[in-house]
Design a protein that fits this description.
heterodimer; A: 171 residues; mainly beta; six-stranded antiparallel sheet; five-stranded antiparallel sheet; B: 972 residues; alpha+beta; seven-stranded mixed sheet; six-stranded mixed sheet; 23 helices; 50 strands; 22% helix
């Protein structure tokens, strides 16, 4: 058969800029959910993140996503499957990166968290509008992961928030 | 009239606007009210009930009279307070509740009928005939009395909601609020300072006194500059804190674009949810009126408003002004006006011992007992010790004292307390946890008192946060006593208005008491006092004082009505920002969405998902033609359908099998690896929650499939069970719904199609599963069927979903098949008697659907004990059956069933129809239904009656599996 063509969740959607902030799709090679089995110690294979924390690692990072659960971005260490339930989440999530000064002000329209105090290395499972989301602080901005099927709504909502905030600055 | 050089308006920025079709000029910084006053416009509104001519009364959000409609293109915003609306170039406003014009309002005949139009008039008069109320009386009354009108169009403007967080929320930026914000800000706390005005400063903006030896305005400017320079302080102007909620959460409404429209992206308003560790309520106080005869004419205003208009906007609403007051505070108004050369014709003070120091006629122990002037005040009558006299005036400033703005302290059910000395209600202590009232909101009416109190209360807030307050020197300021002798009502002939917004007089309140509506809450409903956009801000206390007098109970015992959010009018559009149309909920799209739309498929909503209804082909005129063809295609060759919307839950761990046995009614621990089993899941109450198939991928690894509708509910249920009932089990569950695109391939040629697709041929038995590869991509293949045909579902990582769907459809078409949509899917499953949530709708037990045997007797499961309760099984239950019309007739879902010969009335109801389709396979309509004791009634003829659509059809009861009951085709 012909090759299967891979498409990202927001394929065809180019970056947009409003008020000095840029929204773009961000993709990752691999996201794996890691849920250590009862009594298992995964410490030898990876640094387990504390709640709402991100741990950077070679070629990726691991992000806390819930009690006993984290998302591993990047390669999976050999032997991890013996100690933890793993699932491939790579295609389940759409990634939206909002970059620039004032990103927290934009996301404050959608996310019911105190984003001003969310520092580097922090992340949260929360809401983006009405959507289940994983928000990760990255530099001056944020990455938001939402269900792949909701990518367009997330894009629309964030861009609408960007336009509103940008319009306030045009005086 | 504008006074040269006065005011805080920007004289370099003239603004043109229109009111009632006439163009006027103002300046940036003007409100509509101040600009109209500057242009000498006294008559701005007609009253609610009697269409009395009315003018501007206040200078704030409490305005009861000056409500206007603001017109923007085709949009119209009614009941906008002219005292809040800032003017901008091109603003168009018009008066409301008048016809044909504000000057000549025909409905002012109501005013002539006023003697009979007292409170309760409508209730007492329009009682008969009963049916006329809704059809005739109420619409007619509503047309005659009322507020502004809507455009009858959807509001397509942009609104916003947003969240904010702080340590200390300071509500109001007057002397107390500014001082509190300074103290909290200097201590390093995160501060939000919110003020409803366009400019911060509160009462200080209308004060020409001194603070620390400098003009008040200089102190305000330096305080604002200091606050503005603090990175930990956020200043929100035009932001009204509207409500208090649990846990230190406050709502606030910000006017974002209402004063500077023209930017399509700019939201009109933003509805904020502010979470604050502590709050300072420094909302100030509102001046109240005095009820004297004919006290509602244009030109009769709050005395303090005169001061605000003078100092903030440089306007004076008259040339011959009088002041009528019962307290010392109003004297400053007179002094300020005289200082600008305005003629003060009289100060009328109800207190016999009132000071007479002012350089104008002062009448101690006097009252205003009447007024004249139809469209503007012309003359007042005053009564004093020496008799009555008439004075020509064109403006009368009235002050009946001050009411602390304590509304927010009532939002968590706190009740204010009456203070005899101040003749005012004061906030109860700790009415709202973590919210500290300060300044005028607590009855401190001097600038010095407010500054000191703001600093003190900020210290309390900081202490509660565990922070040290810095040493604060409170600035030196005016510290005059507030002396008042309460006067609520002046004796005399004529109507004495309390609530200008609702046309309620003292007589109405007394009538309420006379008719035994003696509770303040009953008086409010009977008279409508305190309703409408202003919620009685300027009339509540006076009204209940009159009620207290009428009932002899005293004010403290009478109490106030309940203050509820919002503090001031809040647009629903702001609270529901972004929720219009498809913004109501997220839209979920499958990876094949674009491919389906490209094939012309109408998309239908299935929960939040969009799924193709059918795939029309040239020559097909109706959905039925396409649907019938798609059904025949699946039964005859092969069909392709995206089923990615079904929930998929990955379950792993040593106790995974045990866990599934607990959540499913039937057994999954016995399922061999590489096999799939159908299961039903019960709720704790014994009813069916969901059904679906679960595959065993490994010894300790399962993949559960849920219905589309219950995917979220089942995931939540599994999380709950795992955490609450078996926290120590070794089981891990996570949704993988979105990670996989899954496509059903069904029909006698399904295998042929798959063989052409997969990298290696796979022979799967019915209800088996395995790993496969297609063009190198790892995929999962399940041999399951929701159509009764030989069927497979193939799952690939979602990134390949669209590509796989397009490829499968193209291959199916070469085999004489193609894509099928939800309509055909539904027909196929009804023909087979398969269930959806149309059947397992929440009130259904396993017994009802003939699956009692699936509730395993060998093990326990969630819902099993409850399912065995009496009444959840037996002949009294409505049981799943099939229905076929006798003869060639149409039947409908939603219809009810009755025994032959019985009348089709409720008490004879025997059941109802859940799903119906036309079956091209069997040539006729099929229905699934729940019928009382249905399984014992096979072959019986029943009546199907659809009262809504007027159907009455004889149907034969049959087995719910209409087609291929033996399941030969599915094993094919």
């Amino acid at each position: 058969m012909a090759d299967l063509i891979a498409r990202t969740a927001l394929a065809g959607q180019g970056p947009v800029t409003w008020g000095g902030l840029t929204l773009r799709e961000v993709t990752w090679d691999r996201i794996t959910s890691v849920a250590p089995f009862r009594g298992a110690d995964v410490g030898a294979l990876l640094d387990w993140p504390a709640p709402n924390r991100v741990v950077a690692r070679d070629g990726g990072r691991i992000v806390w996503t819930g009690p006993g659960q984290a998302f591993l971005f990047g390669p999976v260490p050999e032997g991890l499957a013996d100690h933890a339930a793993l699932t491939d989440q790579s295609d389940g999530w759409a990634g939206l990166a909002l970059e620039g000064k004032g990103a927290a002000e934009v996301l404050a329209r959608l996310v019911p968290l105190d984003l001003d105090t969310m520092g580097p290395g922090e992340a949260s499972r929360t809401l983006l509008g009405h959507m289940n989301a994983l928000i990760i602080r990255v530099g001056t901005g944020f990455e938001a992961l939402v269900f792949r099927s909701m990518a367009r709504t997330a894009w629309h909502d964030i861009e609408a928030a960007m336009r509103g905030v940008a319009a306030r600055q045009r005086r | 009239m504008r006074i040269d050089g006065k005011g805080r308006i920007d004289r370099a920025a003239p603004v043109r606007f229109r009111f009632d079709g006439v163009e006027y000029g103002g300046f940036r910084g003007d409100t509509l009210a101040s600009a109209l006053i500057a242009n000498g416009v006294a008559l701005v509104a007609r009253s609610f009930k009697y269409h009395r001519p009315r003018g501007v009364v206040t200078a704030g959000s409490e305005e009861p009279n000056a409500l206007v409609e603001v017109i923007e293109g085709l949009q119209r915003t009614p009941n906008v307070r002219a005292t809040v609306q800032e003017i901008h170039e091109g603003l168009v406003a018009r008066s409301q509740n008048r016809w044909p014009s504000l000057r000549w309002d025909l409905l002012s005949v109501n005013d002539l009928a006023a003697p009979v139009l007292s409170a309760g008039f409508y209730y007492k008069t329009f009682m008969w005939p009963r049916a006329f109320w809704e059809r005739l009386y109420e619409p007619a009354i509503r047309r005659a009395a009322g507020l502004g009108s809507l455009s009858q169009r959807g509001d397509d403007a942009i609104y916003e909601t947003a969240f904010a967080f702080c340590d200390v929320l300071v509500i109001g930026a007057g002397p107390a609020g500014l001082m509190a914000a300074l103290v909290a800000g200097r201590a390093g706390a995160r501060v939000i300072l919110a003020d409803e005005q366009a400019e911060m400063g509160g009462a200080l903006l209308a004060d020409v006194g001194e603070i620390d030896g400098a003009p008040v305005s200089a102190w305000v400017a330096s305080a604002l500059a200091e606050l503005g320079a603090m990175p930990n302080v956020r200043m929100m102007v035009r932001t009204t804190v509207t409500g208090v909620y649990d846990g230190g959460t406050y709502s606030a409404l910000e006017r974002v674009g209402l004063h500077r429209p023209g930017d399509a992206d700019l939201p009109r308003e933003c509805f904020w949810r502010i979470v604050a560790g502590q709050a300072v309520l420094a909302a100030g106080a509102l001046e109240r009126g005095i009820a004297f005869p004919d006290n509602d004419r244009p030109g009769i205003m709050s005395a303090h408003a005169l001061r605000v208009y003078l100092h903030r906007y440089g306007v004076v609403p008259g040339e011959r002004i009088a002041i009528f007051a019962n307290n010392d505070g109003a004297r400053q108004v007179a002094r300020d006006l005289m200082a600008e050369g305005v003629t003060l014709v009289a100060i009328i003070d109800t207190r016999p011992d009132a000071p007479t120091a002012e350089n104008c006629p002062v009448y101690p122990g006097a009252s205003v007992t009447g007024t004249r002037g139809r469209r503007a005040l012309r003359e007042i009558t005053l009564r004093h010790a020496r008799g009555e006299e008439r004075i020509a005036v064109d403006c009368l400033g009235v002050s009946g004292g001050w009411n602390p703005t304590l509304h927010l302290t009532g939002h968590l059910n706190g009740r204010p307390l009456w203070d005899e000395g101040l003749a005012a209600f004061l906030p109860a202590k700790d009415a709202v946890p973590g919210m500290h009232p300060a300044g005028a909101a607590t009855g401190l009416f001097s600038t010095a008192g407010c500054l000191a109190d703001g600093a003190r209360v900020a210290g309390l807030a900081l202490g509660a946060l565990g922070r040290d307050g810095p040493e604060t020197e409170v600035p030196v300021a005016e510290d005059a006593d507030y002396r008042i002798a309460p006067v609520w009502e002046v004796a005399g002939k004529g109507r004495k208005w309390l609530d200008l917004a609702n046309d309620v007089t003292t007589k109405d309140v007394r009538l309420a008491a006379q008719e035994n509506f003696v509770s303040v809450e009953h008086m409010k409903r009977y008279t409508t006092q305190g309703m409408a956009p202003d919620q009685g801000k300027s009339s509540n206390v006076a009204a209940l004082a009159v009620l207290a007098d009428a009932t002899g109970r005293g004010i403290a015992a009478t109490g106030t009505t309940t203050f509820r959010p919002p503090f001031s009018p809040t647009s629903i559009a702001a609270m529901g920002a972004g929720g219009r149309g498809t913004g109501f909920a997220p839209q979920r799209f499958t990876t094949s969405h674009a491919a389906s739309v490209a094939r012309g498929a109408p998309m239908v909503e299935a929960g939040l998902w969009y799924r193709p209804s059918y795939f029309p082909r040239p020559g097909e005129a109706t959905w039925r033609e396409a649907c019938d063809r798609e059904v025949r295609m699946v039964r005859g060759s092969v069909g392709v359908c995206d089923v990615s919307t079904l929930g998929k839950i990955d379950i792993q761990g040593a106790d995974a099998a045990r866990f599934l046995d607990l959540v499913y009614a039937n057994t999954f621990s016995s399922l061999p690896v590489g096999r799939v089993r159908y299961g039903i899941m019960l709720r704790g109450d014994g009813h069916v929650m969901d059904d679906g198939t679960t595959a065993r991928l490994g010894a300790a690894h399962y993949l559960m499939t849920t219905t589309t509708a219950a995917a979220g509910e089942v995931m939540r249920h599994l999380d709950f069970v795992r955490q609450a009932y078996c926290a120590d089990w070794d089981v891990r569950a996570i949704s993988v719904t979105e990670a996989w695109a899954q496509v059903a391939v069904a029909g006698p040629m399904a295998k042929t199609l798959l063989d052409s697709l997969l990298d290696a041929q796979v022979d799967l038995a019915f209800m088996a599963c395995g790993s496969v590869r297609l063009s190198g991509v790892a995929a999962r293949l399940f041999r399951i069927s929701f159509s009764g045909e030989q069927g497979y579902e193939i799952a690939v990582p979602a990134r390949y979903g669209e590509s796989l769907f397009r490829d499968l459809v193209a291959r199916a078409e070469t085999l004489g098949g193609g894509a099928y949509g939800m309509e055909a899917l539904n027909v196929l499953r009804i023909e087979k008697g398969f269930l959806t949530h149309a059947e397992i709708h929440g009130r259904i037990t396993a017994f009802d659907i003939g699956m009692a045997g699936m509730v395993s007797g060998k093990k326990d499961c969630i819902g099993k004990p409850a399912s065995q309760r009496p009444g959840l099984s037996g002949p009294e239950r409505e049981q799943l059956v099939g229905l076929r019309p006798v003869g060639d007739a149409v039947i409908t879902a939603g219809a009810h069933l009755f025994s032959r010969g019985e009348a089709s009335v409720r008490v004879n109801d025997q059941g109802y129809v859940t799903s119906v389709c036309y079956s091209p396979t069997l040539g006729g309509y099929l229905g699934l239904a729940f019928l009382r004791d249905g399984r014992a009634r096979m072959g019986e003829e029943v009546r199907l009656v659809d009262h809504l659509r007027g159907l009455d059809v004889a149907c034969r009861v049959c087995d719910p599996v209409f087609f291929d009951k033996e399941g030969i085709r599915v094993r094919g």
